[in-house]
Amino acid sequence: MGGSESGSESDDEYAKLIRRMNPPRVVIDNDACENATVIKVDSENKQGTLLEVVQVLTDLNLVVNKAYISSDGCWFMDVFNVTDREGMKITDESIIKYLHKSIETDACFRPSLKSSVGVRPSKEHTSIELTGPDRPGLLSEVCAVLTNLKCNIVNAEIWAHNSRTAAVVCVTDESTGCAIDDPHRLSIIKELLSNVLSVNNDSRSAKMAVSLGVTHTERRLHQMMFADRDYENVGDNKPSRPQVVLLDCLEKDYTVVMLRSKDRPKLLFDTLCTLTDMQYVVFHGTVDTGRMEAYQEYYIQHVDGLPIRSEAERQRVTQCLEAAIERRASEGLELELRTKDRVGLLSDITRIFRENGMYIRRAEISTEGGMAVDSFHVTDMLGNPVEAKAIESVCEQIGQTALRVRQCPEALSPKPPEETLTSFLLGNFLKACSFQTFGLIRSYS
């Protein structure tokens, strides 16, 4: 046992030495492409590195329009064509410097991805993680309980998918503005919130965790919903449901994963989260967006070096990727709130939504410089579009200047012709079968 541990430590030290000798290199080019900034990343090829790079881009709200992923042995090269949310090139020097620092330095010496998304100590707030069955009014009840317990919600993100919900809520003590660390008080918070989450006739019990730490919220939400098996028993009645096809590429022992869906911000991050959590390695891939649609293609193996071998595994990967795309997909009307922050504000806002028959499907809560900056995606209680009179009532109660109504994204997205998927899959099937002939993937010993 002692010899094994010593060998493991030596391997870790050797790996650190290799990373120091070959740190990630980033080239940011604003001249190579007419309408996007081209970011090239060369790095050691270890599990999770690709996701770490994409996570940096996502956290900066950069939009990936195209991506090319290629690995050869223990090294990989990624090329990303990115813009900001307004479709402009990246010219802000502070963002460019941050990209270099985050990818070239932090990613090189950062612990494993598993550690990087764990809980790290924080004195600023207490993190509350919730998973359980979704239902109308749930967020309102959670906010009311926290407000009654003198907890101030400073940041939160809530996702709902396939009748399940997950939330990461960051709270502080109302009187001190600091994290809550009293064990007795934390136990009361856990007990009361567990009561709110529990549904007697649900086969999967609600789960809750409280920690004095920080985590990457969106990364954690994917892990929570994956662990909660939100990918199971998804209905086939959605016309905009993402298309996922898996093909065998036997010549190289890869599985080819092809995805087609409506384009949206952070789509690449979401699919890579799930592939990484399921212990698959992306060796090669392409991403292309256009006309409101996104196409992703990956050549993958499991970390054990094998492609997908069974029909059960194939079905599970398909379901999990569909769920990863749908979790963040915009559903319903988006309402944006910007107003002066105060204790109990979120409890009041969510109560007003509930009283006007609105069902919160997804929410992002944040505070910036004393201002509450929140986004809510809402439908009526049955999942249908919200009526105009309900919107008017909510705006009157909250304030016309504080609440901004955005048009439902579904109304803006043209339906793609049905033959698009067929031609897409046929073309990629031919590519997957003959990729060696066309040199799409380099052969290496």
TrEMBL record:
PROSITE patterns named in the record: ACT
Gene3D superfamilies xrefs: 3.30.70.260
GO function term, MF aspect, one: amino acid binding
InterPro entries xref list: ACR1-12, ACT-like_dom_sf, ACT_dom
Residue ranges constituting the ACT domain according to the UniProt record: 38-122, 127-204, 334-410
Protein name: ACT domain-containing protein ACR
UniProt KW keywords: Repeat
Function summary: Binds amino acids.
